[in-house]
Amino acid sequence: MADHPVDEKLPAPKMATTGLQHVAAMYAGVVAPPLIVGAAVGLTSAELTFLTGACLFTAGLATFLQTVGVWKIGARLPFVNGVTFAGVAPMTAIVASTDDKKDALPVIFGAVIVAGLLGFLAAPFFSKAVRFFPPVVTGTVITLIGVSLLPVAFGWAQGASPDADDYGSAVNLGLAAVTLLVVLLLRRFTRGFVKQIAVLLGMVAGTLIAVPFGVTDFSPVADADLIGFPTPFHFGAPQFQLAAILSLCVVMVVSMTESTADMLALGEIVERPADERTIAAGLRADTLGSAIAPLFNGFMCSAFAQNIGLVAMTRIRSRFVVATGGGFLVLMGLCPVAASLIAVVPRPVLGGAGVVLFGSVAASGIQTLAKAGLDKDNNVLVVAVSLAVGGIPISAPEFYHAFPETARIVLDSGISTGCVVAVLLNLVFNHLGRGGREAADVTHPMETGEDLAAPTGKAPAAS
After folding, report:
1. Which region holds residue 9: left if phi is over 0, alpha if psi is between -120 and 50, else beta?
2. 8 A C-beta contact, residue 442 and residue 451
3. Residue pair 38/48 in contact by the 8 Å Cβ criterion
4. Cα dihedral: 241, 245, 247, 248 (round 10)
5. Which range among 131-135, 199-203, 256-260 shows the weakest confidence by mean pLDDT?
6. Which UniProt keywords apply (predicted)?
7. Which of 18, 25, 123, 381 is 20 to 30 A from 325 in CA distance terms?
8. Beta-bridge mates of residue 82
9. For every residue of 41-90, which 3-state class applies, written as one string?
């Protein structure tokens, strides 16, 4: 029997180029947290480069755990793991509350270790929530993942920093548009391997086109060392402070929730549905990768949703392609010059490619919703309210400004809030009490239901 496409091993050249495409798609997301946290700590340029390389290295190790797997660790799906952005706000808060900034990173590392180990122990119990994720829930969450990522692409399209003079300039937006156009043309008029690596080729073309406009910066290559290794505990031995540990344990719960949704989404896309065992193994890889990361000066790791879009668009489902990408990440952590080559790609070029990648995730969610029975008004309500609540951080970023910082870690993640609301509403409308009645008994999603006849005794509608 032929291997499932997820377990297929492609020819080496194809593995290398498609693996590199995954790295290019997630590079900006991996390096942003260490740059933000490192700047808050007040690290020098050399220390920032070291911290960034360490996060690339640990992302590669976590990706190996997730894709190749060992024992009961790893979903063995084409998942890229990297530094979760959910931890940026609490980590910067830890930095702000630390009197001696030299202790800030050791305190963060200690909290990540504890949160990772606790998450590892909780993974098999957390995975049992998979039965609460029917198509009406997974489709909603997948759509929210894509929609939540689109603002990231739009921000990249405008430039590297909102404080820059050229942020949102016609040149930056033009480069993003040209990159998007190149990707679309390649997808439309080419076939085979070239079509599959259209995103990578689009980014190469966009980078070259950006050179005459002075947007491409080659200084990272010139300044990078050839060889570097993330020395264990380079910034000091980990310190364990209760407040920091509690804060990052909350982040770990958020990260595990999002990773569960991501695994369900990817399982649908690659046609190998993620069951309870797969999710437990995937969460073990996330949490163990997080617990190990501080040893090499890295932060908390989780699955990267943007790479789901790449899998959905290219239809290359091999987990070994992503494992190859993990190899590139490890190489970049050991060879700063290699890492700097990806850093050369201008942010607007990444933005143009991101529109395709993240939009593909949302489209996959819509495809799942098409199988979710939206002819039933109960399901319409579940989707409508969940998308609305999940869209709050996107459409009204300051909506939860009066809430405590710990609560905002959860509330500011539209994926997490939308997921929780979808699960709860699905239980209420489709499983509890009279919620399982057929959609034919409800004439309109907003009907009060006070004058409806009693259930006819039919079996509850599928959810």
Report:
1. beta
2. no
3. yes
4. 140
5. 131-135
6. Cell membrane, Membrane, Transmembrane, Transmembrane helix, Transport
7. 123
8. 302
9. HCCCHHHHHHHHHHHHHHHHHHHHHHHCCECCECCCCCCCEEECHHHHHH
Contacts 24+ apart (CB under 8 A), 51-55: 51/297, 52/339, 53/228, 53/230, 53/332, 53/333, 53/334, 53/336, 53/339, 54/230, 54/234, 54/296, 54/297, 54/298, 54/333, 55/30, 55/31, 55/82, 55/83, 55/293, 55/297, 55/298, 55/299, 55/333
**Chain centroid to CA 296:** 22
- Per the document, the length of the chain is 463
**Quick one: tokens of 228?**
């570097």
Q: DSSP assignment of 316-365, as one string?
A: ---HHHHHHHHHHHHHHHH-HHHHHHHHTS-HHHHHHHHHHHHHHHHHHH
* CA 339 vs CA 12, 55, 331, 333, 396: distances in Å: 21, 11, 8, 7, 35
DSSP 396-433: -TTTTTTS-HHHHHHHT-HHHHHHHHHHHHHHHHHTSG
Cα torsion through 278, 280, 284, 290, rounded to 10: 100
Q: How far is CA 278 from CA 6, 266, 274, in A?
A: 13, 12, 5
Residue matched to tokens 């910082």: 405
CA distance 221 to 342: 9
Q: What percent of the chain has pLDDT over 90?
A: 24
Q: How far apart are CA 434 and CA 448, in angstroms?
A: 13
Contact in structure between 139 and 368 (CB atoms under 8 Å): yes
Rg (CA), the chain: 22
CA 216 from chain center: how many Å?
26
Tell me how far apart the alpha carbons of residues 315 and 136 are, in angstroms, rounded to a whole number. Answer: 23
pTM, whole model, 2 decimals? 0.68
pLDDT digits (tens, 9 = 90+) for 88-97: 767 877 887 7
Rounded CA separation 378/125 (Å): 29
Over residues 320-324, the mean pLDDT reads 92
> Smallest Cα–Cα separation from 298: which of 270, 272, 332?
332
Which of these ranges, 17-21, 27-31, 335-339, 437-441, has the smallest mean pLDDT? 437-441
If you search the block for the tokens 């998979």, which residue do you land on? 130
pLDDT tens column, 382-436: 999 999 998 998 889 889 888 886 677 667 777 778 888 988 999 998 877 655 5
